[in-house]
Amino acid sequence: MCQRHRRLSATVLDLPHVCDIAAERIGRAGLGQSVDTVAHDFRTDERLPGGYDVVLLSSVLHNWDEPTDRALLGRCRTALEPDAAVVICELLLNPERTGPTDAALMGLNMVAETQGGRNYSESQYLAWLTDAGFTEPRVIRFDAPGANGAVVAVTR
Q: In terms of DSSP H, where are the helices of 10-135?
């Protein structure tokens, strides 16, 4: 996004070893002026850094159980300024949790490969965001590799 929209700036928030890899790739892409990294472990660090307009959780929440995901969304809400947004980009299950096929199969993979991870339905994410204090939650569907939609909500 920062390559396409030069006025944007972004921070990659991830584990230290991932930030090292990201910083190298950011430099190779010539984006050092607009993209930086912050080493952080949301599972153990108490607070997320603040001052951002948007938090993008792209293919993050399916790795963890519901209590962990809800806690992270609560931390996102606390870190964001008023009139900011959170965007959850995932392979979303339908409200009945019966499909689409790629989301259901990915969910099965997460159950087998992680401790507590699974794919969640759009209705679950909508409820979690509301419970965390976000407003105007909505689902935007699309077709892309690794994701079929985004759940977006704002702070007021």
A: 16-28, 66-79, 101-113, 122-131
**Residue 44: which residues within 8 A CB-CB, separation 6 or more?**
none
- What does the domain layout of the chain look like in residue ranges? 1-40, 48-154
> How many Å apart are CA 7 and CA 1, to the nearest integer?
10
Which of 5, 17, 40, 62 is catalytic? The answer is: 62
Give this prediction's pTM.
Answer: 0.93
Q: What is the pLDDT of residues 12-59, one digit of tens each?
A: 999 999 999 999 999 999 999 999 999 999 999 989 999 999 999 999
Specify whether 40 is catalytic: no
Say if CB 142 and CB 87 are below 8 A apart. Answer: no
Architecture (CATH level 2) of domain 48-154: 3-Layer(aba) Sandwich (3.40)
The DSSP H or E segment spanning 13 is strand 10-14
Compute the C-alpha angle 66/136/95, nearest 5°: 45
